[in-house]
Amino acid sequence: MAGRRRRTNRARFAVRNWPSYDRSLARRGDLTIWIAPEALHAWRGGGRQTYSDAAIEAALTVRAVFRLALRQTEGLVGSIFRMLGLSMPVPDHTTLSRRGRHLAIDRRVNAGDGIDLVIDSTGLRLYRRSSWRRRLRVGRTPWRKLHIAIDPTTGRILTEQLTRSGVHDTRALPGLLTRIDGRIDRVYGDGAYEGAPTYRLLVDRPQALPVPQAIFRPRSTAIRAADALDPLSQRGRHACYIARHGWRSWAKATGYGRRNLVEATFSRLKRMFGDRLCGRTLPAQQIEAAIITRALNRMTDLGMPVTERFA
User: Fold this and answer.
1) Do residues 137 and 117 share a domain?
2) Nearest CA to 182 among 119, 110, 134, 254?
3) Same domain, residue pair 215 and 287
4) 124 and 180 share a domain?
5) What is the pTM of this model?
6) Same-domain check for residues 141 and 94
7) Which of 77, 174, 228, 308 is the most buried (most CB within 10 A)?
8) Residue 20 lies in a domain
9) Are residues 244 and 130 part of one domain?
């Protein structure tokens, strides 16, 4: 089969804004980026809480960015306050662990007049406890599934959801879409989202016309049965087009190549923060995933490379 494959030259790109992107990479290590003045002003909590949610989130963000343990996070935040000459209390590792399980984080986003989405999921391993050693020996490594929806224009993660490993992508999709207010124009996804329930979910979305355009790669079974599908439905149009013109023509006509941006986002996330979650319980892991995605968005806002193809 190797002799029958069509050989194509791999595309090559060059970064055109390297000076500004180089400065943004250096700023990622600036501690003032991760402990902003807004968090310092709202550091103390109200009522019976000594620390506000902003303080806990800032400390846990520092922990995620620099890959520290909770005790090391406590020491780093304390040293920052001492260098700044601030007499502010520092949450201990027990408080960070306890408050981090039920931290209130605003995950809603406003899409405005219209936005495109690229959705996908990836796996994240869990912290290896001693009680899991037997399962690890037999090859049953525990893990979670992270579902995200990104803006292909800016590369920012608009919303995320962490589920157990057995949750299918289509079951997590409603939770992602309900956190996005405004109008959605297009939704890109792989074949895991292709199916009648996903199309029905987008059609029933409460927004002004037109309805979101679903661009999911049809499965081979749908293409073989293209003549039996409704030609007026989105799923039927995609399957019929592929059956007549082929995959490459369909991908070029629909812009399906934008779905690769979510794969690049997963690569950046795992290179920056690792592929393992430290939380012991699912609520703590969900908060940890939310903090990681927000930290990656902050890195994205500092600057991203502008590439141009030259070969």
Assistant:
1) yes
2) 110
3) no
4) yes
5) 0.89
6) no
7) 77
8) yes
9) yes
φ, ψ (nearest 5 deg) of residue 258: -65, -20
Task: Give the number of domains in the chain.
Answer: 2
Domain co-membership, 187 together with 127: yes
Model pLDDT for residues 64-78, shown as the tens digit of each residue = 999 999 999 999 999
pLDDT digits (tens, 9 = 90+) for 222-240: 888 877 777 778 888 888 8
In a domain, 241, yes or no: yes
267 and 131 together in one domain: yes
**Is 4 inside a domain boundary?**
no
Judge whether 88 and 41 are in contact, CB under 8 Å.
no
SS3 sequence of the chain: CCCCCCCCCCCCEEECCHHHHHHHHHHCCCHHHHCCHHHHHCCECCCCCCECHHHHHHHHHHHHHHCCCHHHHHHHHHHHHHHHCCCCCCCCHHHHHHHCCCCCCCCCEECCCCEEEEEEEEEEEECCCHHHHHHHHCCCCCEEEEEEEECCCCCCEEEEEEEECCCCHHHHHHHHHCCEECCEEEEEECHHHCCHHHHHHHHCCCCCCCCCEEEECCCHHHHHCHHHCCCCCHHHHHHHHHHHHCHHHHHHHHCHHHHHHHHHHHHHHHHHHCCEECCCCHHHHHHHHHHHHHHHHHHHHHCCCCEEECC
Range of the domain at 122: 113-277
The two tokens of residue 79 are 């040293």
